[in-house]
Design brief:
The protein is an alpha+beta fold and about 160 residues long. The chain has one domain: Nucleoside Triphosphate Pyrophosphohydrolase (Alpha-Beta Complex). The chain is built from five helices and seven strands, in the order H-E-E-E-E-H-E-E-E-H-H-H. Strands 1, 2, 3, 4, 5, 6 and 7 form a seven-stranded mixed β-sheet that branches. The longest helix is centred in the N-terminal third of the chain and has 16 residues. The chain is globular.
Length: about 160
């Protein structure tokens, strides 16, 4: 997939911030939700052409991780969620990105709201095998860790590599 204008602008902003801070820019805090329903995973097909990602995003100043996650998921999908458990904490620069982040990923379930697309992208429910090799920003490792922890049966459901 081709990277859109928004992706290029984000890369330029990251490069500029890195230069202005002489490479000492601290990582950004982010949160993401892994929501599964009927064997399908809630994702956004990104408008910038970078692929799919889990709903979530960067936290605001003085925002609790959990509150930021609830806000981001609602803004991006129209769903209200309840957080069930921690999937993992992921750090470092994402593939093809200049900015570093610390992402806290939770398994969650939908408790309300109505599905809708957002400026971030189109909301989809896809099977894990449809996502492998097509996820942005390191989200694939998050998905694989979630599947491993939920006793998912990779040989029968995921493509063999």
């Amino acid at each position: 997939m081709r990277q859109g204008v928004e992706g290029r602008l984000a890369q330029l902003a990251g490069w500029l911030l890195s230069r202005l801070t002489l490479g000492a820019l601290p990582p950004f805090a982010a949160a993401a939700a892994l929501v599964e329903r009927d064997g399908r995973i809630l994702v956004l097909e990104r408008n910038d052409g970078l692929g799919f990602n889990l709903p979530g995003g960067f936290l605001r100043w003085e925002e609790r991780v959990e509150d930021g996650l609830l806000r981001e998921v609602f803004e991006e999908t129209g769903f209200h969620i309840a957080i069930d458990r921690l999937v993992g904490i992921y750090s470092g620069p994402a593939p093809r990105q200049r900015l570093s982040s610390v992402a806290i990923v939770y398994a969650a379930r939908i408790v309300g709201g109505q599905q809708r697309d957002s400026f971030e992208g189109r909301v989809l429910w896809l099977e894990p095998r449809e996502l492998i090799g097509r996820m942005a920003f390191g989200n694939e490792q998050m998905l694989l860790d979630y599947l491993a922890a939920t006793c998912y049966d990779p040989p029968s459901r995921l493509p063999h590599g």
